[in-house]
Specification:
Layout: H1 2-9, H2 13-22, H3 29-37, H4 45-57, H5 64-69, E1 73-74, E2 77-78, H6 80-83, H7 86-89, H8 94-101, E3 112-123, E4 129-140, E5 147-153, E6 162-167, E7 170-177, E8 182-188, E9 198-206, E10 218-223, E11 227-235, E12 244-251, E13 259-263, E14 270-278, E15 281-288
Parallel strand pairs: 3-11
Antiparallel strand pairs: 1-2, 3-4, 4-9, 5-8, 6-9, 7-8, 10-15, 11-14, 12-13, 12-15
Length: 290
C-alpha cells in the first residue's frame, strides 16, 4: 500500500520526508525507503506517529497504514504476519505455511538482507523434479542474525523431500506436516553475524516427489523480501527436452503487470532466468513438453 501511494502521489522520497517534517515528524529518507520496500516495519510508538503524518501527506484514509503496521510486533517479537509475504500466503497452502512458521524462530529474518538467491532444479528423464540446490548470499543489517528459515510445500499431498545443509549452515528445528505436504525448517549459521557481515549458504532438497500427473511444467521462487539478484536454473535430461520455455516475474499483490520473456535451452540442456532488484514477488520458469 505504501509503495503504491508514493507512486500515485508523484512525490520523491525526499519530498515525502520533507512534508512529514513540516508536520512535526522526523523521517529519514533511508527509513522511508526501507518501509516502502518491506525491508523493515514501523513498529515503535514514535514511528507510528510518523506513519500518521505519512497518511496525511499521501492522502490516505486515517489509520490505513497504521492498521498494517501495528500487528507487526507483539511483545517485541515479530508475528508470523509480518514475516510472511502475501505472495506466499496466496498459495493454496499459505494458511498452513503460516501456522508452521509460527513454530520456528524467525527473529533473524528481519535482520538479513537477501543479496543473491541462486536455485538449481534438476528434472529427470521421467519429467519429474529430482533435486533442488539453493545458494544464498545474505548480509546482516543488525547484530545477532544466526539463522534463516525456509518453507517448502507441494500443492497436492505428496511425500516431503530430504533437507541437507551443504555449506555455511546446519539444519536446526524442522517442522513437517506430511498430510498437508508442508515443511518449514531453520538453517543455523556457525555463529551469529555482526551488522554488515555477509555469509554464503548452500542447502539441497533431495528425493523430491514426482508430480501427480507425472510431468512437471514449472519451477518458481517466492521472494518474501527484496532481492538484488535472483537466478533460477533448470537442468533437463538430454533425452527429454521441453519445446518451449519462458520466464515469468510477478510482483506481489499484482502491484505491477507480470513480465514474460522467452527462454532458450542451451547446449548443456539448461535454461536460466535472472531477475535483478526484484521482490517481494514470484519468479518462475515455465515450460511445455509438446
Amino acid at each position: 500500500m505504501l509503495s503504491d501511494a508514493i507512486a500515485r502521489s508523484g512525490l520523491t522520497l525526499e519530498r515525502v520526508a520533507d512534508a512529514v517534517a513540516a508536520r512535526g515528524g522526523v523521517l529519514a529518507v533511508s527509513t522511508l525507503s526501507h518501509w516502502r520496500s518491506g525491508r523493515s516495519m514501523p513498529t515503535r510508538r514514535g514511528s507510528l506517529v510518523v506513519v500518521g503524518h505519512l497518511e496525511d501527506v499521501l492522502g490516505l484514509e486515517s489509520g490505513s497504514l497504521r492498521l498494517l503496521a501495528k500487528p507487526a510486533y507483539r511483545g517485541g517479537r515479530p508475528t508470523v504476519e509480518s514475516r510472511m509475504s502475501p505472495v506466499a500466503a496466496s498459495f493454496s497452502k499459505g494458511g498452513r505455511v503460516r501456522e508452521l512458521l509460527g513454530e520456528v524462530d524467525m527473529r533473524s529474518d528481519e535482520r538479513l538482507m537477501r543479496l543473491s538467491q541462486h536455485d538449481r532444479c534438476r528434472i529427470g528423464p521421467d519429467r519429474a523434479k529430482e533435486s533442488l540446490l539453493v545458494r544464498q548470499v545474505l548480509r546482516a543489517t543488525e547484530d545477532g542474525a544466526d539463522r534463516f528459515v525456509i518453507a517448502f510445500w507441494h500443492d497436492t499431498s505428496q511425500p516431503l523431500p530430504q533437507l541437507v545443509a551443504l555449506r555455511g549452515c546446519r539444519v536446526g528445528h524442522v517442522v513437517r506436516d506430511p498430510a498437508a505436504a508442508v515443511l518449514v525448517a531453520e538453517l543455523l549459521f556457525t555463529r551469529p553475524l555482526e551488522c554488515g557481515e555477509t555469509i554464503v549458504t548452500e542447502h539441497e532438497l533431495r528425493r523430491l516427489a514426482p508430480a501427480p500427473d507425472g510431468a512437471e511444467d514449472c519451477y518458481g521462487r517466492s521472494l518474501r523480501h527484496p532481492t538484488r539478484e535472483c537466478l533460477l536454473e533448470v537442468d533437463f535430461d538430454p533425452d527429454t527436452l521441453p519445446v518451449r520455455c519462458e520466464q515469468v516475474a510477478e510482483p506481489e499483490n499484482h502491484s505491477q503487470p507480470a513480465t514474460r520473456r522467452a527462454l532458450t535451452v542451451d547446449s548443456d540442456c539448461r535454461v536460466h532466468a535472472l531477475a535483478n532488484g526484484f521482490g517481494p514477488g514470484v519468479v518462475e520458469i515455465r515450460w511445455t513438453w509438446s
